[in-house]
Amino acid sequence: MKSSIQLDHNSMTFKTDYLQLVNLLEEDDEDKWPSLLAEFDEFHLICSMFTFCSISFTPRSLNFRADRLAKGARSRSLSFSHTNTQLPS
């Protein structure tokens, strides 16, 4: 999300295969997860920097390409600070 802000993107939709994360971020009751309060606050702060920001669940089974790229990166112990918004040729 921070990389998208730095790249001057105003409107973003983020997808994740982690349904529990989406559910936690959508919950209004922050008392359930006090250990994650700082992360929730940072998420909401960064979201407020966009004119539109959403996060939604997409199962891995419906996103083969991203899943394959993530598995390949993990097997090579690579870490990415941001992703490019352009499609590869």
From TrEMBL:
GO terms for molecular function: nucleic acid binding; RNA-DNA hybrid ribonuclease activity. Residues 5-72 form the RNase H type-1 domain. Pfam families: RVT_3. InterPro entries: RNaseH_domain, RNaseH_sf. It comes from the Eukaryota. PANTHER family: POLYNUCLEOTIDYL TRANSFERASE, RIBONUCLEASE H-LIKE SUPERFAMILY PROTEIN, POLYNUCLEOTIDYL TRANSFERASE, RIBONUCLEASE H-LIKE SUPERFAMILY PROTEIN-RELATED. This is RNase H type-1 domain-containing protein. It comes from Brassica campestris (Field mustard).
